[in-house]
Structure formats: structure tokens, C-alpha cells
Predict the 3D structure of the following.
Amino acid sequence: MRRWSGWVIVLTSLALWLVACQPAPPATPTPTQTPSPTATPTRTEMASLTPSPTATATLTHTPTHTATPTCTFTPTPTSTPSGTATPTHTATPTPTRTPSMPIVYADRGPHGDLEIFIRWPDGTVVNLTNHPSADAYPSFSLIHRRIVFASNRDGPTHIFSMNADGSDVRRLTDSPFGDTLPSWSPQGTQIAYQSLLEEGNWEIYVMHVDGSNKRNLTQNPAIDISPSWSPDGRRIAFETNRDGDFEIYVMNANGSQPTNLTQSPDSYDITPLWQEDGRIVFRSDRGQARGEYRSYIMNADGSDVALLP
């Protein structure tokens, strides 16, 4: 019995020794925490991080010079023209010009007022007046290289002249009621224009290039306006209501022999423009409602009237 007890003690001690010598199981690793992804900025946050671009400068309006507007006075039969009124600008066909001839015209300037511009044959465009008043109805003399125009810078509209670069501005007329629509004679010796003598009485005048020797060519109580020189400078076409309606007349350069060319009592024929080929372009509402004008062309004696396309 003692022998069996000794073996039990030995075996038990051996088992305890084996257990003590057994290597410990490796510890289960703690999983590494996956880092949270960086949050994607919202559109608002991105915008706040993006530098603001420099503000774009406001563009200054540049006049379009592909079509040359010709300023013409259009009479309103129900109201009397006023010498101080801002001129009404109605586009009419542009006469043929020699290639070396610059084009002068009125257009809205950068501040919205009417200015006189010149476009040279090389395409250069220059604002000549740069004045806060209304400057319109320019006419260029290649002989004198000067421009005459109408402006209300001194109150009522008057005729001014200046060099082709806008310098040396001179006032040529001083009518108390207003003068407008100047036009150089082809030879550059005279300037025709219309002047308001009293309410409702517009007359056609001519003067020397320096404003001297003013002469009333029409001397009629009716409205006589829109003078246009013939290519040879011997005659002047104009519009008048001396027959009750507006017609196109022509007279000699001294005012003699005024002749009705259109003779269309049921329509208004206005704004004559003498072409270099000797014909006259004008506007008329014939066959249309009153005031709905179309462009026509006729011979200098009033024959062969044709509607322009």
C-alpha cells in the first residue's frame, strides 16, 4: 500500500511539472483599429477654402461701327419742331464715299450721350467730342479736314466745327431758337443748315465756313428742312410742307427756282439724300400707314421713282 502511494505522489508531481513547463498560448492580438477616413469637404467648405478670384472689370460699351447711322430730322405732323429738342436719329442709306474718305457719325458714347465718332480708312475709330451734351449730325470736309456738327452744349442746338482730330472746336451759329443739320458743299466753300426762326418756321440757310455771311435760302413760313447738296454743288434738295404735306423739293444753291420733285399729296416724302451718281434717295410712307417709311430712289428731276430693297 505504501508502495502504491509513493507512485501516486510521483505521478502527480510529474503531471504538475509538465503543466508548469507547458508554454503559455500566445495572446490573441487585439485588432488594430482602422483609422477613420478623412471627411470629404462639402461644396460650401470647398468654396470657403478656394481663394476668391479678382473681380472682373466692368466692360465699357464700345459702339458698333459696322453700319453708319445717318442722323436725319423726321418731322411729326401733329407737333411743331422745337429748336431745343434733342435731334431724332433715323437711319438712311449712306451715300457712296471715296476710299480715302473717313466716315463720321453720331453714336452713343460710353456714358450714353450722343458723341461724334470718326472711322479712318485703316479701321481706326476715335470719339472726337467726349462731351456730356448731345453732339450729332456730323458732316466732314476732306478739303478742310474739318467736321461741322450740331450740339446743345451751349443751350439751344447750334452748329459747331472742329478739326478732324476733335481739336479747335468753334461755334458758328447763334440763332436764339436753334440750328441743326449742317452739310458741307462739295467744294467746301459753304455750309448749308436748317434754322428755327420762330415756332414752326424752319428755314434752309447757307454760310461761309467760318460762320459768316449767313443767308436764308427758302424764306417761307412753312417747315423747310433736311438740306442735301447735289454732287456739283449747284443745287440743294430739301423737304418741306409748304404744299400741306411733306414733299421733296430742289432749288438752286442761291435759293431760286424751288421745284416739287415728288408731288405725292397722299404721303409724306422726307429726308432727301443726294447720291454721287446724281440720283436722290428719300424716305416715304406712300402706300403705307402714316409714319411707316420705306426708302426710295429717283432721278434728280423726280422721274423713275423706285422702291429700294
About this structure: Helices lie at 2-21, 43-49. The longest strand covers residues 190-198. The chain has two helices and 19 strands.
